[in-house]
Amino acid sequence: MVVLSHPIVDGNLTHIKTCKAAANAVSIPVVDLSQSGAKTVIFEACKELGFFKVINHRISMDFVTQLESEAMKFFKLPPPEKAKSGPPNPFGYGSKVIGPNGDVGWVEYLLFSTNPDLASRNPSSAATGISETLWEMANEYVSAVREMACEVLEMIADELEIPTREALSRLIRNQKSDSCFRINHYPARPNLPALTGRSLIGFGEHTDPQIISVLRSNDASGLQISSGGSRWVAVPPDHGAFFFIVGDSLQVMTNGRLRSVRHRVVAESVRPRVSMIYFGGAPLTEKITALEGVMEEGEESLYREFTWCEYKDSAYKSRLGDDRLSLFQNS
Length: 331
Ligand code: GA4
Prior knowledge:
InterPro entries: DIOX_N, IPNS-like_FE2OG_OXY, IPNS-like_sf, Iron_ascorbate_oxido_reductase, Oxoglu/Fe-dep_dioxygenase_dom. Keywords: Dioxygenase, Iron, Metal-binding, Oxidoreductase. By secondary structure, the protein is α+β, with helices and mostly antiparallel strands. It is built from 7 helices and 16 strands. The site of gibberellin A4 has 17 residues, from strand 6 and strand 7.
């Protein structure tokens, strides 16, 4: 995909890219989880865009706001304190550097594994600025969001008309599910002449490798999704809603029926943006392949068979914006 971006050179912004400020406006599908027609809207949105917004989800917004302020307490600590929880190899605190292969953005973050087998690679709260309260609240939040994601995945299974309703949800409910949780803080955009008419890249364009991601942010703008080609659509923020993002694994498991969506975050706001994303992934040994009952008779698999572990290893060797699935496509 062509990105209209070039690096700007200015002290601590060196190497962070910018892009054209304007983005098209397209309406984002809205799913009311309390309505019986939710399934149909979800399925259509996953086919068309790989993205939708969920309202009436029953998750307490007071709790979410509290978690957000607890996270902000961490981000307000002096840099050397925050650095004690880093570097994110692959989990922990990171500032500007994203992943191991040279990607950077106008962002700082905390990244945790929710897989108990990998928990030892999370920063330990004793030695770091991450409070016990933040840990506990993050765990509670992940459990609630995971349950909502399972509900949505079961609706997707219904619409796919596959024999097992839990074929997708069991993967992220599984004790060994390789899921992770990220809290991103995009500081307010600096006021620099070099940025006039342009946006600073907060988190560069990419697709999520997992099955499904659930994002919630404060009311600061910045999230954009690709609507094909180099067209970007700005997603208006909504602090009371959750945004669902179809990941590469779900695209493969539905043999391309549902599509993973490229998205990015630009720092365009004078207000800091805080987002929390739960990435629901399969257990490491799970085969990522078309689900039983998905394929029509005679339909060929678009992808060769691979495990989540293989895909994840390959993802961590890639650059953020790479088309990671192309390496697994059948010719
Ligand atoms: C994108 C989705 C998730 O944020 C993430 C990211 C991960 C990271 O930040 O370490 C990756 C990126 C993400 C895909 C390619 C690799 C790995 C950065 C990167 C360059 C946590 C994930 O699982 O994959």
